[in-house]
Amino acid sequence: MLPFTQSSLAKIEEFFKEQGYKVRYEKGSFRTGACMLETTKVVVVNKFSNLEIKIQSLWNILLDIEIDSETISEKLLPLYEEVLKSKTVA
Questions:
Q1: Dihedral sign for Cα atoms in the order 73, 77, 82, 88
Q2: Is 78 helix (H, G, I), strand (E, B) or coil?
Q3: Are 34 and 54 in contact (CB under 8 A)?
Q4: 76 in Cβ contact with 15 (< 8 Å)
Q5: Positive or negative CA dihedral for 21, 22, 25, 29?
Q6: Rounded Cα distance, 3 and 46, in Å
Q7: Confidence grade of residue 18 (pLDDT, cut at 50, 70, 90)
Q8: Angle, vertex CA 65, rays to CA 28 and CA 6, nearest 5
Q9: 53/86 Cα distance (integer angstroms)
């Protein structure tokens, strides 16, 4: 898992973008910190959540989506490896 920093959040957002997803921050009555609209590849994050909840929520969605390893840039390869490690532990 990544540290709870703005930089980590930006990396996760960039990873989603490389995978063809759009991350949006909106208000709403969320039971969790985020949800995914699978058919449209949109991830909606509660904009009122704190940084830790935003990162954890996006991370949990990353663990559930199918990742196209061909589209991952070298810059985000370490993040992908972290995702793979987390998947094998879970």
A1: positive
A2: helix
A3: yes
A4: yes
A5: negative
A6: 19
A7: very high
A8: 60
A9: 17
Residues 34-63 pLDDT 10s: 888 868 999 999 999 999 999 999 999 999
Token code pair at residue 35: 């949800």
pTM > 0.85: yes or no: yes
| 4 neighbors 10 (Cβ within 8 angstroms) | no
Which helix H or strand E contains 34, and what residues bound it?
A: strand 34-37
pLDDT in tens, 58-88: 999 999 999 999 999 999 999 999 999 998 8
The set of residues, in sequence order, having a beta carbon less than 8 Å from that of 73 and lying 6+ positions away, is 18
